[in-house]
Amino acid sequence: MLNIAVKAARAAGAIINRASLDLDVLKINTKSPNDFVTEVDQAAEEAIIDTILTAYPGHGILAEESGRERGAKHSDFVWIIDPLDGTTNFIHGFPYYCVSIALAFRGKVEQAVVYDPTRNDLFIASKGRGAYLNDKRLRVSKRTRLADSIIGTGFPFRKGDNFQRYLKMMEDVMPLCAGLRRPGAAALDLCYVAAGMYDGFFETGLNPWDIAAGALMITEAGGLVGNFTGESDFMHQREILAGSPKIYGHLVKLLTPYSRVITAEEAAEAKAEQDAAQATPASALAASIAAAEQAQTEAPKRKAIRLRKKDAPTAGDDAPL
């Protein structure tokens, strides 16, 4: 299965590399303000799904652009696909984007591939067997002091995102670390944590296809992944925190006040909504998640949302996905 994922990722990477040579003729559509999709995203996703379903026609698919339109609807095996993470970078010719493919079995991610076509960097991981970059075993960094660490993040960019909340997080984190970086492709950022290039990473508003593969890379490289409170439930919480064990612990202390972890009841409601949306395109799924998040923002009296007296409602450890 990992070999099939690698084959699919390289096929998509070839499409992306060819298109990068002539960006001027690229057809670009807007899913929402500052959220773009190109014909390259769609062609790469189709190539990935074709490769997977040729080998495993009974498996399920959850892809960013086409959602659950293809593949089996009730399989224990689900491929979670982002054909081009970092589309905005790509259309500007900024060489920081990747293909992300993860395979989940009964909700737990067991295989992961992230391919950077600009550098021909192939990150792979299998549950219990480690993570690798171009056949070199990956380990998270050994830094223990936040003051020595580079932390990756992603800035809010969609209409309705809580910019003030993010500014407060940055005010807390930036003075205490060696630097904050935001290249703009979360799947690749997470792989850089696994490789020890970053010491930690945090972001809100991400979808499963953004984080599924990268999260397995980190845990297989000896790191920790969770939500802002250090709990293992992050895949559908719209917040993620990752890092080497020591740095992860430091970041949990800083970011816990900004967590927006939902209750079990709300999680069940969200899962029901997601199950209902599994036959719809991913854009609709993303819209439903965004609507749920908006509802949380407008209902600050819910017990699940943790407040500080002077701060707005805020958002995200290691456990299997």
UniProtKB/TrEMBL annotation:
GO terms for molecular function: inositol monophosphate 1-phosphatase activity; metal ion binding. InterPro entries: IMPase, Inositol_monoP_metal-BS, Inositol_monophosphatase-like, Inositol_monophosphatase_CS, Inositol_monophosphatase_SuhB. GO terms for biological process: inositol metabolic process; phosphatidylinositol phosphate biosynthetic process; signal transduction. Mg(2+) binds at residues 64, 82, 84-85, 210. CDD domains: IMPase. It comes from the Bacteria. It catalyses: a myo-inositol phosphate + H2O = myo-inositol + phosphate. Keywords: Hydrolase, Magnesium, Metal-binding. Pfam families: Inositol_P. Residues 295-321 are annotated as: Disordered. Its cofactor is Mg(2+). Its EC number is 3.1.3.25. Belongs to the inositol monophosphatase superfamily. This is Inositol-1-monophosphatase.
